[in-house]
Amino acid sequence: MNKEIVSIIQKDQLYNLMLKGERADGRAFDEIREIKIETGVIAKAEGSARVEIGDTKIIAGVKISPGTPFPDTPDVGVIITSLELIPLASPEFESGPPRENAVELARVTDRGIRESGAIDLKKLCIIEGEKVWMIFIDIHVLDDGGNIMDAAALGSIAALLTATIPAERYELGEDAPLPIRDIPVSVTAVDIGGGIVFDPSLQEERVANTKLTVISNQEGALAGMQKSGSGSLSTDQINHIVEVACKKAQDLREKFLEI
Amino acid sequence: MTDKPEKFIDENGIRSDGRRANEIRDVKIEVGVLSRADGSCYLEFGKNKVMAAVYGPREVHPRHQQKSNRAIVRYKYNMASFSVEDRKRPGPDRRSIEVSKVSREALEDQVFTEYFPKSAIDIFVEVLQADAGTRTAAINAASVALADAGIPMRSLVSACAVGKVDDTLVLDLNKDEDNYGQADMPIAMTPDGKITLLQMDGHLTKEEFKQGLEMAQEGCRQVYEMQRKALIDYYSKKTEVLATEATATKDVKEDAPEEPEDVTPVEVTENTEDTEKIDDTNETEDSEKTEDTVKTDDVEESEDSGEDVPYIDEIADETDGQMDESEEESFNE
Questions:
Q1: What is the count of structural domains for chain B?
Q2: In a domain, B294, yes or no
Q3: DSSP states of A175-207 as a string?
Q4: I need a surface site. Which of B11, B189, B212, B218 has the fewest CB within 10 A?
């Protein structure tokens, strides 16, 4: 819906800037906006983080409690990720059950954490087939300034890194930090008239037809990917995004996240 | 659910289902299998069985979704409760919402939506039997169904997945490889190499990714040839039938020239629908056509039926990723 609101003039402007190798906010094509991460912001949550990327603000909270494992995986913990695009964050968001955009963001965030093996889920088994630790990652988007995807992924891993298993509260032994093995980082790029720009601002995200999110792990391998939007990408564009995204992810990891 | 096999690939490089690493499963494509839908396709991809139907361009409900300058494309991927081992709760879940979204986005840009303002093109895909790779099978079927519905498209879209098992890249994962493999990457692309769907989860190094992307593209190319062939076969057969019917109709009409449609066999009615579908965009032209039909004598009528043949060729052209020039013009009128 939002795409139609963007004026053709704005689209032309961004496109013309792109041809000159520029972006509206003066960044280089592969330059990521300023990032702020603050952890432990919610005392009641087992882990939490507030992330800002440019104007985008999200808050991620991790709650951990014992629960029943899935029958097909009786000896591993459970991760449940949800993300809500609440009306507080943008005039375009509506209340109600998550729509496809929110579902997609949540599922891609979840995929990054799960597929990179970030959490050692085997260590979250309490009694096989009966009781395991369930990890609920909930992401609240507070301000949509573009690229919620990367903010959500950063927020969730940052919150997980600071999370404690509340074993004492449930009389299941001593509190312990969550067993984290890897730090997946998501980097997103969009295609604006053939030019690839990273960490899209809201304006860029609206103008672009195609978005590619690349989630890479500590060793620089890929853990997840998602193309979003109705456009298409060439093989060269994809390879370029993958290359740059892995490098950027490494920078972010060194700067903000440590096990 | 079966347990994790010890080895996915034996010493001869053969996978558990007898394929080599770069082979896709057997594909069966049937076009025009549903009577009520404007276009349809039944597709089997290995043990996957999917049915796709396309309705439209048609009126948009709810009204507020309507776009003044183009058609909207809606895609609904739905898994039958009996399609998987443990009964799936009917109705949309988060997975199917995401699959529907990315699949729609894989097809949307290939449709000339600007030809049908204020209308909707609805794609419904039912997964009847699931065996890894349902979203790619669904996209393949949907793409053929769109062509069958006569929706003008820039090109067909073909999809195929690549994955990793035993540290080896394999094309088109089967169920075990999907469940216990190290990575899964479905892609969809057009015959000219534009990638319209790309998802990945698991673990791939950058080199593996590049190689995997190439493998999947090769898989897509094979699927594309099969989609193209299925459409051409179906419409060549239909053309033959129509040609025979046209001659027959001509004879019948000499007896009853006023109401040709009432006496004509079903096939001919179908063919009229097909022709009209193209003209749906232009109401004026449409009404003129109707007047024409009323006035037509036998000679003109037979010319009309003759027009169906190039239309069918156009379908074949679409599969080439090109629009027939004349068709494009008629839309812009």
A1: 1
A2: yes
A3: -EE--B----EEEEEEEETTEEEES--HHHHHH
A4: B11
What phi and psi, each to the nearest 5 degrees, are found at residue B151?
-75, 125
For residue A222, count CB atoms less than 10 angstroms from its CB and return exposed for 0-12, middle for 13-18, buried for 19 or more: buried
Q: Are the C-beta atoms of residues A156 and A136 closer than 8 Å to each other?
A: no
Q: Does residue B43 belong to any structural domain of this protein?
A: no
Closest CA to B22 of B196, B221, B204: B221
Model confidence band, residue A8 (pLDDT cutoffs 50, 70, 90) = confident
Side-chain-side CA neighbours of residue A241 (13 Å): 31
Look at chain B and count its residues: 333
Cβ pair B205:A221 closer than 8 A: yes
CA distance B252 to B305: 14
Q: What's the full length of chain A, in residues?
A: 259
The residue whose two tokens read 């060194």 is A254
Identify which of A207, A257, A255 has the alpha carbon closest to the alpha carbon of residue A229: A207
Query: Looking at residue A123, what DSSP letter applies?
Result: G
Domains of chain A: 2-256 (3.30.230.70)
Give the DSSP letter of residue A34.
Answer: P
Contact A217 B67 (CB under 8 A): no
Please name the residue of chain B whose CA is at the shortest distance from the CA of residue A4.
B67
Asked if A235's CB is within 8 angstroms of B195's CB, the reply is yes
Chain centre to alpha carbon of residue A251? 16
pTM score: 0.82
Query: Which residues span the domain enclosing B313?
Result: 238-332
At B148-171, the pLDDT tens digits run 999 999 999 999 999 999 999 999
Calculate the CA B83 to chain-centre distance: 21
Angle at which helix B308-319 crosses helix B298-306, to 10 degrees, equals: 10
Q: Tell me B61's DSSP state.
A: S
If 0-12 CB within 10 Å is exposed, 13-18 middle and 19+ buried, where does residue B228 land? buried
Distance between alpha carbon B249 and the CA centroid of its chain, in Å?
A: 32
**What is the tens place of the pLDDT at every residue in A30-79?**
999 999 999 999 999 999 999 999 999 999 999 999 999 998 899 999 99
**pLDDT 10s digits, B208-221:** 999 999 999 999 99
The shortest C-alpha distance from B189 to chain A (Å) reads 8
Spatial separation of the C-alpha atoms in residues B246 and B217, rounded to whole Å: 42
Q: What is the dihedral of CA B35, B41, B45, B47, to 10 degrees?
A: -10
